[in-house]
Write a structure and sequence with these properties.
Blueprint: E1 3-6, E2 9-12, E3 28-31, E4 36-38, E5 46-51, H1 58-71, E6 77-83, H2 87-97, E7 103-106, H3 111-117, E8 133-137, E9 143-148, H4 158-163
Parallel strand pairs: 5-6, 6-7
Antiparallel strand pairs: 1-2, 3-4, 3-7, 5-8, 8-9
């Protein structure tokens, strides 16, 4: 269990992030156009998983914007932004923001994803949502970097995630 804060108030996740060197299960999410997208769809590329509570919060939206900007310049690397948001909300956000360089997807149909990754918020006002986490996978699908952001309202360390590739 990770202890994090939300607005300075202590909250908890259900476990710990996957260890560096492990391989994730092939989870399938729902993209903003309602099509499925699986981790295996990115095989042969480095993959940054930008996981967050909701695109309708300022820091979550900022993380998608920042990774969208960075992804435009990355070779052999993709960014998959994941939240519990419904695909309709993700589609609205991407359309309004011109988000085209990252893939956005919902894990609302895949509750075991957050549970297996140890990032499900288990108490407080965001209970049931994903905490703010970065997981970077190499081209073989192995975890090479993780970050559990200690304060939900804090942006992730973009530079460290990108440097891991």
């Amino acid at each position: 269990m990770a202890k994090i804060t939300l607005g300075g108030n202590e909250t908890n996740t259900n476990g710990t992030l996957p260890a560096v060197g492990t391989t994730l299960n092939n989870y399938t999410f729902v993209k903003n156009d309602m099509a499925p997208v699986s981790l295996s769809d990115f095989k042969g590329k480095n993959l940054i998983l930008n996981i967050f509570p909701s695109v309708d919060t300022s820091v979550c939206a900022t993380s998608v914007r920042n990774f969208n900007k960075e992804a435009a310049n990355m070779d052999d690397t993709a960014v998959l932004c994941i939240s519990k948001d419904l695909p309709f909300a993700l589609n609205r956000f991407c359309g309004a923001e011109g988000i085209e360089n990252v893939t956005v997807a919902s894990d609302f149909k895949v509750p075991q994803f957050a549970e297996d990754m140890g990032l499900k918020i288990v108490d407080g006002v965001f209970e049931g949502l994903d905490s703010r986490v970065i997981i970077v996978l190499d081209k073989k699908g192995n975890v090479i970097y993780t970050e559990q952001v200690p304060e939900v309202g804090q942006e992730p360390d973009y530079e460290a995630a990108l440097a891991a590739i």
